[in-house]
Protein backbone atom coordinates (compact mmCIF):
# COMPACT_ATOMS: atom_id res chain seq x y z
CA UNK A 1 0.00 0.00 0.00
CA UNK A 2 1.47 3.38 -1.07
CA UNK A 3 0.78 6.88 0.17
CA UNK A 4 -2.03 7.38 -2.34
CA UNK A 5 -4.06 4.58 -0.81
CA UNK A 6 -4.09 6.19 2.66
CA UNK A 7 -6.66 8.87 1.72
CA UNK A 8 -6.98 11.93 3.85
CA UNK A 9 -5.33 10.29 6.87
CA UNK A 10 -2.22 9.66 4.85
CA UNK A 11 -2.08 13.19 3.63
CA UNK A 12 -2.85 14.97 6.93
CA UNK A 13 -1.53 12.53 9.42
CA UNK A 14 -3.26 10.97 12.43
CA UNK A 15 -3.92 14.28 14.10
CA UNK A 16 -6.29 15.60 11.43
CA UNK A 17 -5.90 18.48 9.07
CA UNK A 18 -4.97 20.95 11.79
CA UNK A 19 -2.02 19.03 12.97
CA UNK A 20 -1.35 16.54 15.74
CA UNK A 21 -3.67 16.57 18.76
CA UNK A 22 -6.12 19.18 17.39
CA UNK A 23 -9.68 17.83 17.14
CA UNK A 24 -11.64 18.33 14.02
CA UNK A 25 -14.27 21.06 13.93
CA UNK A 26 -17.83 20.04 14.89
CA UNK A 27 -20.64 20.46 12.52
CA UNK A 28 -22.58 23.21 14.53
CA UNK A 29 -21.65 26.80 15.50
CA UNK A 30 -19.88 27.50 18.85
CA UNK A 31 -22.06 28.78 21.83
CA UNK A 32 -21.45 32.49 22.63
CA UNK A 33 -20.09 33.42 26.10
CA UNK A 34 -22.75 34.77 28.59
CA UNK A 35 -22.82 38.57 28.79
CA UNK A 36 -21.26 40.21 31.87
CA UNK A 37 -23.93 41.84 34.17
CA UNK A 38 -23.15 45.43 35.07
CA UNK A 39 -24.01 46.73 38.61
CA UNK A 40 -27.14 48.85 38.86
CA UNK A 41 -28.34 51.59 41.24
CA UNK A 42 -26.01 52.99 43.87
CA UNK A 43 -23.62 50.10 43.38
CA UNK A 44 -22.89 51.38 39.87
CA UNK A 45 -21.51 54.62 41.26
CA UNK A 46 -17.93 55.17 42.15
CA UNK A 47 -16.85 55.12 45.79
CA UNK A 48 -16.90 58.92 46.32
CA UNK A 49 -20.42 59.16 44.93
CA UNK A 50 -21.61 56.25 47.06
CA UNK A 51 -20.25 57.99 50.17
CA UNK A 52 -22.08 61.17 49.17
CA UNK A 53 -25.37 59.30 48.71
CA UNK A 54 -24.99 57.62 52.12
CA UNK A 55 -24.37 60.96 53.81
CA UNK A 56 -27.38 62.52 52.08
CA UNK A 57 -29.65 59.66 53.21
CA UNK A 58 -28.35 59.99 56.77
CA UNK A 59 -29.11 63.72 56.81
CA UNK A 60 -32.64 63.11 55.50
CA UNK A 61 -33.27 60.37 58.10
CA UNK A 62 -32.11 62.62 60.94
CA UNK A 63 -34.28 65.46 59.65
CA UNK A 64 -37.35 63.22 59.49
CA UNK A 65 -36.75 61.92 63.03
CA UNK A 66 -36.36 65.46 64.40
CA UNK A 67 -39.53 66.63 62.64
CA UNK A 68 -41.59 63.67 63.87
CA UNK A 69 -40.28 64.21 67.40
CA UNK A 70 -41.12 67.92 67.36
CA UNK A 71 -44.59 67.17 66.01
CA UNK A 72 -45.17 64.60 68.74
CA UNK A 73 -44.16 67.06 71.47
CA UNK A 74 -46.40 69.72 69.93
CA UNK A 75 -49.55 67.60 70.02
CA UNK A 76 -48.70 65.74 73.25
CA UNK A 77 -50.04 66.90 76.63
CA UNK A 78 -47.84 69.30 78.64
CA UNK A 79 -44.94 67.39 80.12
CA UNK A 80 -41.45 67.88 81.51
CA UNK A 81 -39.79 68.13 78.09
CA UNK A 82 -42.23 70.69 76.69
CA UNK A 83 -42.00 72.80 79.83
CA UNK A 84 -38.22 73.02 79.49
CA UNK A 85 -37.95 73.19 75.69
CA UNK A 86 -41.36 74.53 74.65
CA UNK A 87 -39.83 77.58 72.96
CA UNK A 88 -37.69 75.39 70.68
CA UNK A 89 -40.71 73.24 69.81
CA UNK A 90 -42.84 76.29 68.96
CA UNK A 91 -40.07 77.80 66.84
CA UNK A 92 -39.89 74.59 64.81
CA UNK A 93 -43.66 74.17 64.40
CA UNK A 94 -44.97 77.69 63.79
CA UNK A 95 -46.18 78.80 61.38
CA UNK A 96 -45.57 76.18 58.68
CA UNK A 97 -46.37 72.99 60.61
CA UNK A 98 -49.09 74.15 63.01
CA UNK A 99 -51.48 71.39 64.12
CA UNK A 100 -54.99 71.97 65.47
CA UNK A 101 -55.39 68.62 67.19
CA UNK A 102 -54.07 66.96 70.32
CA UNK A 103 -52.70 63.48 70.90
CA UNK A 104 -55.16 62.78 73.72
CA UNK A 105 -58.65 64.18 74.19
CA UNK A 106 -59.02 64.94 76.98
CA UNK A 107 -55.42 65.19 78.08
CA UNK A 108 -54.47 62.71 80.81
CA UNK A 109 -54.34 64.04 84.34
CA UNK A 110 -50.98 64.79 85.90
CA UNK A 111 -52.37 64.63 89.41
CA UNK A 112 -53.26 61.83 91.78
CA UNK A 113 -56.77 62.34 93.18
CA UNK A 114 -58.01 60.16 96.02
CA UNK A 115 -61.57 60.19 97.33
CA UNK A 116 -61.84 59.61 101.06
CA UNK A 117 -64.81 59.38 103.42
CA UNK A 118 -65.52 59.23 107.13
CA UNK A 119 -68.77 58.72 108.99
CA UNK A 120 -70.59 59.52 112.20
CA UNK A 121 -71.94 56.25 113.51
CA UNK A 122 -74.62 55.76 116.18
CA UNK A 123 -73.81 52.81 118.39
CA UNK A 124 -76.28 50.52 120.13
CA UNK A 125 -76.25 52.57 123.35
CA UNK A 126 -77.25 55.86 121.73
CA UNK A 127 -73.76 57.32 121.52
CA UNK A 128 -72.10 58.72 118.41
CA UNK A 129 -68.63 57.87 117.13
CA UNK A 130 -66.63 59.29 114.23
CA UNK A 131 -64.67 56.87 112.11
CA UNK A 132 -61.29 57.53 110.58
CA UNK A 133 -60.84 58.42 106.93
CA UNK A 134 -61.33 55.55 104.50
CA UNK A 135 -59.37 55.95 101.25
CA UNK A 136 -61.84 54.52 98.74
CA UNK A 137 -59.64 55.29 95.71
CA UNK A 138 -56.78 53.32 97.27
CA UNK A 139 -59.13 50.35 97.71
CA UNK A 140 -60.05 50.51 94.02
CA UNK A 141 -56.38 50.77 93.11
CA UNK A 142 -55.52 47.66 95.08
CA UNK A 143 -58.39 45.80 93.41
CA UNK A 144 -57.20 46.83 89.93
CA UNK A 145 -53.47 46.26 90.47
CA UNK A 146 -52.52 42.90 88.97
CA UNK A 147 -56.08 42.24 87.80
CA UNK A 148 -56.22 41.42 84.10
CA UNK A 149 -59.97 42.05 83.91
CA UNK A 150 -60.91 44.73 86.48
CA UNK A 151 -64.57 45.60 86.70
CA UNK A 152 -66.07 48.82 85.40
CA UNK A 153 -67.14 49.65 88.97
CA UNK A 154 -63.60 49.41 90.28
CA UNK A 155 -62.23 51.58 87.48
CA UNK A 156 -64.83 54.26 86.97
CA UNK A 157 -67.71 54.37 89.48
CA UNK A 158 -66.08 56.51 92.17
CA UNK A 159 -64.10 58.64 89.72
CA UNK A 160 -67.14 59.42 87.58
CA UNK A 161 -69.22 60.23 90.66
CA UNK A 162 -66.60 62.74 91.82
CA UNK A 163 -66.34 64.29 88.35
CA UNK A 164 -70.15 64.56 88.29
CA UNK A 165 -70.09 66.38 91.62
CA UNK A 166 -67.38 68.83 90.51
CA UNK A 167 -69.25 69.61 87.30
CA UNK A 168 -72.42 70.52 89.20
CA UNK A 169 -70.93 72.50 92.12
CA UNK A 170 -68.91 75.67 92.50
CA UNK A 171 -65.68 76.11 94.45
CA UNK A 172 -67.71 76.62 97.64
CA UNK A 173 -69.41 73.22 97.18
CA UNK A 174 -72.74 74.86 96.38
CA UNK A 175 -74.90 73.12 93.76
CA UNK A 176 -75.16 74.79 90.36
CA UNK A 177 -78.23 73.87 88.36
CA UNK A 178 -80.85 71.18 88.85
CA UNK A 179 -78.36 68.29 88.80
CA UNK A 180 -76.50 69.45 91.88
CA UNK A 181 -78.70 67.60 94.39
CA UNK A 182 -78.68 64.54 92.15
CA UNK A 183 -74.88 64.41 92.12
CA UNK A 184 -74.80 64.74 95.92
CA UNK A 185 -77.24 61.84 96.34
CA UNK A 186 -75.31 59.72 93.87
CA UNK A 187 -71.95 60.29 95.58
CA UNK A 188 -73.46 59.84 99.06
CA UNK A 189 -75.02 56.50 98.18
CA UNK A 190 -71.77 55.21 96.74
CA UNK A 191 -69.73 56.07 99.83
CA UNK A 192 -72.37 54.65 102.19
CA UNK A 193 -72.39 51.38 100.28
CA UNK A 194 -68.57 51.29 100.42
CA UNK A 195 -68.59 51.91 104.18
CA UNK A 196 -71.11 49.14 104.65
CA UNK A 197 -69.00 46.80 102.53
CA UNK A 198 -65.94 47.66 104.61
CA UNK A 199 -67.86 47.02 107.85
CA UNK A 200 -67.12 50.56 109.04
CA UNK A 201 -70.05 50.51 111.48
CA UNK A 202 -68.95 47.26 113.06
CA UNK A 203 -65.36 48.45 113.27
CA UNK A 204 -66.39 51.70 114.98
CA UNK A 205 -68.97 50.34 117.41
CA UNK A 206 -67.77 46.80 117.89
CA UNK A 207 -71.21 45.54 116.96
CA UNK A 208 -74.50 46.85 115.54
CA UNK A 209 -75.17 50.47 114.70
CA UNK A 210 -76.10 52.82 111.88
CA UNK A 211 -74.49 55.59 109.88
CA UNK A 212 -75.97 59.01 110.63
CA UNK A 213 -73.76 61.35 108.57
CA UNK A 214 -70.91 61.11 106.10
CA UNK A 215 -68.24 63.54 104.99
CA UNK A 216 -66.31 63.25 101.73
CA UNK A 217 -63.02 64.86 100.86
CA UNK A 218 -60.53 64.70 97.99
CA UNK A 219 -56.77 64.52 98.34
CA UNK A 220 -54.93 65.92 95.30
CA UNK A 221 -51.18 65.70 94.80
CA UNK A 222 -49.06 66.44 91.74
CA UNK A 223 -47.28 63.61 90.00
CA UNK A 224 -43.58 64.19 90.74
CA UNK A 225 -41.36 64.88 87.72
CA UNK A 226 -38.64 62.40 86.73
CA UNK A 227 -35.31 62.56 88.54
CA UNK A 228 -33.47 63.89 85.51
CA UNK A 229 -35.80 66.90 85.20
CA UNK A 230 -34.99 70.33 86.62
CA UNK A 231 -38.69 71.04 87.03
CA UNK A 232 -39.86 71.88 90.54
CA UNK A 233 -43.35 70.72 91.52
CA UNK A 234 -44.93 70.93 94.93
CA UNK A 235 -45.73 67.48 96.30
CA UNK A 236 -47.76 68.81 99.23
CA UNK A 237 -51.28 67.37 98.92
CA UNK A 238 -54.29 69.68 98.76
CA UNK A 239 -57.57 68.70 100.40
CA UNK A 240 -61.12 69.65 99.52
CA UNK A 241 -63.56 68.77 102.26
CA UNK A 242 -67.28 68.68 101.63
CA UNK A 243 -69.83 69.43 104.33
CA UNK A 244 -71.37 66.66 106.42
CA UNK A 245 -74.31 65.02 104.70
CA UNK A 246 -77.09 63.38 106.75
CA UNK A 247 -77.82 59.84 105.64
CA UNK A 248 -81.51 58.91 105.21
CA UNK A 249 -82.77 56.00 107.28
CA UNK A 250 -83.21 53.74 104.26
CA UNK A 251 -79.53 54.23 103.38
CA UNK A 252 -78.10 54.17 106.89
CA UNK A 253 -77.57 50.43 106.97
CA UNK A 254 -76.30 50.23 103.42
CA UNK A 255 -79.72 49.19 102.25
CA UNK A 256 -79.71 51.06 98.95
CA UNK A 257 -78.48 48.65 96.29
TrEMBL record:
UniProt name for this protein: DUF5819 family protein
UniProt keyword terms in alphabetical order: Membrane, Transmembrane, Transmembrane helix
Transmembrane segments: 51-73
Region entry Disordered, spans: 1-35
Comp. bias intervals (Low complexity): 21-30
InterPro entries xrefs: DUF5819
